[in-house]
Protein: DDE-1 domain-containing protein
Organism: Rhizophagus clarus
Amino acid sequence: MDETPVWFDMAGNMTGKQLPRGEVIPKGVICWFQDNGWMTSDLMKNYIDFLFRIRMSENLSKESAMIVYDSFRGHLEESVKIKFKQHNFHLAIISAGLTSVCQPLDVSINKPFKDNLRKEWHEWMSRGGSGVTAAGNLKRARISDVCGWVKRSWDAVSDQIIFNSFKKCSISNLLDGSEDDMVYEEIDKLIAEYEKENLEEFDDDVEIVSN
C-alpha cells in the first residue's frame, strides 16, 4: 500500500537529525525525514527493509508478497526495483489517472484518517495549542504532539475499512469471484459522481430563453 500523504511544515531551522530537547516520539511511531519533505528512492529502500524485517519477525520472509504503488518515479528507480526483488516483493504499478479506483488509500482510507487528524488539530487549537510567542504569534506544534495526532488518527481507522478498501480495489478478493461486486460498487459510485458533476456544469451553462 502506498504512503499516506500528510504534510506538516516544521520550522526552517529543523534538520530532522536530532529531536529538540524534551521531545519524545510516542511508542508505535517511526519517524524518517527528508530535507525537502519528499519521498525519495533512499527512503523507499529504507521502507522496504523495514517491511522485510516485519515479515521476517512473522516468519513470512520466504513467502512472496505484492506491493501496489502508483507511478511516482521514486517507486520505479532501478535500485528500488532491485531492493523489492531481493526481499521477494512483487511490485504492481497503478497506471496514471487510476489511483482513485485502484489504490486502497485513495478509495476508502485517506478520508477517515485525515478527518481524524483534522479533529486532533482542532482539539489541540481549542486548548490553546502551544501558546504564543512574545510577538503574539502562535507557536508551532511539538513534533511529539504531531506524532501523537498521527498515531491516534490512524488507530481510529477500523480494520474493516482497510480490508474493504483492498477488496474494492480488487487486490485481496477471493478468487471465486464472490467478492467482485465490491469492485463494481466503487466504479458505479465514481460514475454517478462524474455524471452528477457534468450535469451540474451543464445546468450552469444552459441559458433559458423565454419567448
Summary: The radius of gyration is 22 Å. Residues 134 and 140 are 13 Å apart (CA to CA). DSSP finds eight helices and two strands in the chain.
